[in-house]
Amino acid sequence: MALKADARAEADRLMAAFQGAGAAVVEADILQPAEVLLDLYGEDIRARAYVTNDPIRGEMMLRPDFTVPVVQMHMDGGAEPARYCYMGEVFRKQEHLSARKSEYFQVGYEVFDRADPVAADAEVFALFASLLAPLNLRAVTGDLAILTAAVRGLKTLESRKAALLRHIWRPRRFTQLLDRFGGRAAVPESRARLLAALASGDTLTQSPMIGLRSDAEIATRLAALQEDAESAPISAEEVARLEDLLTYTGTCTAALAHLTGLARDMPTIAPAVDRMAARLDALAARGIAVDTLDFEASHGRTTLEYYDGFVFSFLATDPDLPPLASGGRYDALTTVLGQGRSIPAVGGVIRPGIVADLKEGAPC
Amino acid sequence: MLKLGIPSKGRLMDKTFDWFGARGITLSRAGTEREYAGAVDGAEGLDLVLLSAGEIPRELAAGRIHMGVTGSDLVRDKLADWDRQVAELAPLGFGHADLIIAVPACWPDVDTLDDLDAAAAAFRRAHGHRLRIATKYHRLVRDFLTANGVADYQLVDSQGATEGTVKNLTAEAIADITSTGETLRANHLKILADGLVHQSQATLYAARAADWSDAATTLADLAPRLGFTAPRL
User: Fold this and answer.
1) ipTM (interface predicted TM)
2) What CATH architecture applies to the domain A1-116+343-364?
């Protein structure tokens, strides 16, 4: 295990490289207001971030990552386009007994640029690939924009699409919903009873109204349930195509051919597939061997839920090691934190401590 | 000496005394009602420590006691990776309680976790904050909801009278222990059909972190009498 000093020295080297690529150095507070992070990540973040209490500022978290403060800082009036880099400790609670660290360095590089998002994707990936090249890592890429476009193209109720989109990042729930909307899972008994009662106009409950959720909200959902029950299931053909897309793995070149074929039946993914084609060209122009670069369609679905386009990770051969680097596009996050404004953004982080570990073990 | 921690008062203590008594080991409180010291009759090398049931998981994790009796809900909620910190020796067959998720009975459209998730999404859009679930079992409930893919909720801490939080508008739903469901009904709440988080009962545990060098033989003697196989610790 690398000492903190080794990790810091490696972080300094990476920072120098990021500055060489044109990034301005930014800092972020270690104590972050918990509310923003909770709002963004949900209750799960409590299991992963250290929460503490400030008598004046209320609930605070030791920063679990830099993305949120950096995006906030940029949206608060950063010039455009912008390239930022940063380094420092992040803090992650480990809920399982393991050798994984709960405090470690991250070095990051973020690009806010409207001009050519595809080129920015390639720039970030190629920069990371060149910095990590001596370590012989496996890079994996994906593209969440293709998945969301596929869901948006389903011929079914908007409410069903919205539910599926909401759970893109929770694969198990997504599958359950798809099974139900596709008519493959039985309607729960209680739902069947409720629908029968609604149809016959029976009184649904004798219980007094309590709590904040209003009569009107309940009525809205009851109407949505009836609409859902009356709608045809998503066709088996469409479900099969979506599943084919979700489980696809291959090289980027093969993936592009496969997805281009799929786009003939799923026209809504065509623009995202075109962007992927342009991205692969941009990557190839930067010397990345896209013929051997891995593409996994579901990559990025189990990470923190803010990536919405190109995603990538660099992995060591030892499966016990966390990813050495990861990143992706998060345009929607800038909208959430931008209070009405937004900007295409892509970036990633490297863990210098693990880079230092691997360098110790391997001559490079 | 093998230190055995058991709850210091109430039904849990009495039932634990009965359970050991039925197996030939008489446990009792020494001295007066108010003194938290214990006496053991019928087993060599066993030292009785009376503790609050809520502190027993922590004492086991720290290895300050070798064995302890407490609710399985408390062990699983308070200890991360509980089964790597303690070994379950024997369920004691009492102190049964279910940790469940309950919502207002006036929500006819919510009967499963799937419904709860959908209602939470709509609630967040309408109210600008996540649907609040009051509980004191944060780890168990969060792990359960995460595993089941429920989103757009937040846990709010409630250390008592949790069933009243919905009516008091401090939560929209609750996750709490129930045995008969009486209190839930009285507070106009209903249990979700698939909302059973954990079935708890009083359980005898062994501490993996304890120093067993002077207690291992006592454990080996106790195992056949108490009806469990001595675990590898």
Assistant:
1) 0.88
2) 2-Layer Sandwich (3.30)
Other beta carbons within 10 Å of A98: 10
Q: Tens digits of per-residue pLDDT, A236-273?
A: 999 999 999 999 999 999 999 999 999 999 999 999 99
pLDDT, tens digit, for every residue of A32-44? 999 889 888 888 8
Q: Cβ contact (<8 Å) for A95 and B80?
A: yes
Distance CA A194, CA A264 (A): 40
Q: Is A152 marked as a binding-site residue?
A: no
Q: Are the CB atoms for A246 and A258 separated by under 8 Å?
A: no
Residue found under tokens 């800082």? A73
Q: Chain A interface, mutation test: which of B82, B109, B191, most A Cβ atoms within 10 Å?
A: B109
Q: Nearest Cβ partner of B188 from A42, A188, A208?
A: A208
CA distances from A245 to A27, A128, A267, A358 (A): 40, 27, 13, 35
Spell out the domain ranges in chain A. 1-116+343-364, 184-232
CATH of B97-200, one of 3.30.1330.10, 3.40.190.10, 3.20.20.100, 3.40.50.2300: 3.40.190.10
Query: Hey, is the C-beta of B217 within 8 angstroms of any chain A C-beta?
Result: no
pTM of the entire predicted model: 0.89
- Tell me the pLDDT tens digit for each residue of A202-243: 888 889 999 999 999 999 999 999 999 999 999 999 999 999
Rounded Cα distance, B192 and B100, in Å: 8
Q: Parallel, antiparallel, or unpaired for β A294-296 and A138-143?
A: parallel
Answer for the pair B61, B74: CB distance below 8 angstroms, yes or no.
no
Interchain proximity B112–A188, CB inside 8 Å:
yes
* Rounded (5°) CA angle A53-B150-B157: 30
Into which CATH architecture does domain B2-96+201-226 fall? 3-Layer(aba) Sandwich (3.40)
The answer to whether residues B199 and B193 touch, using CB atoms and an 8 Å cutoff, is no
Residues contacting A195, CB < 8 A, separation 6+: A187, A225, A226, A229
